[in-house]
Amino acid sequence: MRWIDGHCDVLWKLWDAREPISFYDAKSPLDVRFPDARAAGIGLQVFALFVSPKVPRDSAWDAVLRQVDLFYEVIVRDGSEVTAVSSSAELENLKSSGKMGALLSLEGADALSGDLYRLRVLYRLGVRQLGLTWNHANEAADGVEEDRGGGLTRFGRKLVEEMVRLRMILDVSHLSERGFWDVMEFSDAPVIASHSNCHAVCPHRRNLKDDQIRALVEKEGIMGITFVPQFVHEPKEEAAVEHLLRHIDHVCELGGERILAFGSDFDGISHKVKGLEDVGGFPFLEEQLLKRYPEEWVRRWMWDNWYEFYRKHLS
Ligand SMILES: [Zn+2]
User: Fold this and answer.
1) Which InterPro entries does this one have (predicted)?
2) How, if at all, do strands 222-225 and 260-262 pair?
3) Which pick of 15, 71, 114, 313 has the fewest CB atoms within 10 Å?
4) How far apart are CA 83 and CA 78, in angstroms?
């Protein structure tokens, strides 16, 4: 069976590296490298454009554009093995072409510096998904690590309205709880949490509370279960696949079989869940899932849920 992985930070690593890193070399230091991704059955990989807070704010826009360039130059190249996906037609073509799809997503609106023209430019470059914040506050909203817990700002609302006009997908992973509910209340944007787990299973503030998960179910969004050890289990050093399965059980208990999917966060994490050290761990996860759940469900979580969602919402 094939996988869709809803989040990785390969582009950040490519941008941040002193020496050029290859995506296609089997010996590449990346968690997600092409030979292993293909062998593991990754059919579509979402690539985040992420700029760490260590980068000066006035360089963030440049860093995002350079990552877009790396996406096309290093990942997609001539399109013979990996193909950029930004429409439902391109998504549907994946099956017959046998190529791996690659979708661009912006993680945090910081680089927009409060100007919507930058959102429109990114859309034209193929970005179809945007998370309003990383962990901190920006012009659009507060992230989960801001103690004041603010919601969307006036710019944040304008940004979401423009995303709805462009038909972009809104990612609530990293967003403050109040921001989450602001989005749910006033926006019709298709909503996902690309890489978040269950707070009831592992009480980390990056994880979603039950009422948030129920709201995602109601909105027919997607919740990408993620492999970040501290969001999987406490203590994080012991995090294993069996703990990840508890999150899956919990989402199912809340009626979320149809929103359940995966967003690894590979290349964005330095510690790993046992057995899920890199993209080569996906087949092991598949095996564990098939031991516990009906094949039809597993197929849904690996592929169908993301696929149906993107087919519906990528214009
Ligand atoms: Zn993230």
Assistant:
1) Dipep_AS, Metal_Hydrolase, Pept_M19
2) parallel
3) 114
4) 8
Which domain CATH number covers 194? 3.20.20.140
Å from CA of 231 to ligand 1 middle? 11
Q: How far is the CA of 107 from the centre of ligand 1 (A)?
A: 7
The pLDDT tens digits of the residues spanning 180-222 come to: 999 999 999 999 999 999 999 999 999 999 999 999 999 999 9
Q: What separation in Å is there between the alpha carbon of 194 and the centre of ligand 1?
A: 8
Q: At what angle do helices 177-186 and 210-218 cross, to 10 degrees?
A: 20
Can you list the pairs that 239-244 forms with residues at least 24 positions away whose Cβ atoms lie under 8 Å?
A: 239/273, 239/274, 240/273, 240/274, 240/275, 241/273, 241/274, 241/275, 241/276, 241/284, 241/285, 241/288, 242/288, 243/201, 243/202, 243/273, 244/273, 244/276, 244/285
Q: Which residue has the tokens 């399965």?
A: 245
Query: Structural domain tally of the chain?
Result: 1
CA of 97 to the centre of ligand 1 (A): 30
Instruction: Give the range of the structural domain holding residue 285, as residue numbers without chain letter.
Output: 3-313
Phi, psi of 231 (to 5 degrees): -95, -5
